[in-house]
Amino acid sequence: MLDDARDVVADHPGQTIIGDNNYYGRAFEQGVAVRDLTLLCPARKGEPERAGARLFRPLRQTTESINQTFKGHLTWNATAAVLMLVSSCAYWRGCSR
């Protein structure tokens, strides 16, 4: 992942990467450190709490809130589209409801 985005890493040194607890291992963390990046991710079971752990709850809550908002809009738009389609079909068929 980091090798594929060399230009991004080179153009913006000192970035913070946010990941889940599946990004781990000595080799990965050394690669992050060599590139002058900071890894922000939750601790895995048995690991001590990492720096920035207090940021994950508000970040997760914000992300979930945004996702729910989009889901609500998509559901509403789909429902409105179906209602418009049904009403236009009824109109063209001469049906009244």
Describe this structure in words.
The chain is mainly alpha-helical. It folds into 2 domains: 51 residues, no CATH class; 45 residues. The chain contains 3 helices and 2 strands. It has a two-stranded parallel ribbon. 0% of the residues are buried. The mean pLDDT is 75.
Count of discrete alpha- or pi-helical segments spanning 4 or more residues: 3
Name the helicity range. 40-55%
Overall geometry comes to elongated
Instruction: Profile the largest sheet.
Output: 2 strands, parallel
Which value, in Å, is the CA radius of gyration?
24 Å
The total domain count is: 2
Summarize the helix and strand pattern as letters.
HEHEH
Q: How are the strands of the biggest sheet laid out side by side?
A: 1-2
- Stretches where pLDDT is under 50 for at least 5 consecutive residues are none
Tell me which oligomeric state these chains represent.
Answer: single chain
Tally of extended strands? 2
Strand content: 5-15%
Arithmetic mean of pLDDT: 75
Distance between the termini: 57 Å
Query: What structural class do helix, strand and pairing data support?
Result: mainly alpha
How does the SSE layout of this entry go?
Blueprint: H1 6-11, E1 16-18, H2 26-34, E2 38-40, H3 56-93
Parallel strand pairs: 1-2
Any key phrases for this structure?
two-stranded parallel ribbon; mainly alpha; single chain; 2 strands; 97 residues
Task: Sum this structure up briefly.
The chain is mainly alpha-helical and 97 residues long. It contains 3 helices and 2 strands; from the N terminus they run H-E-H-E-H.
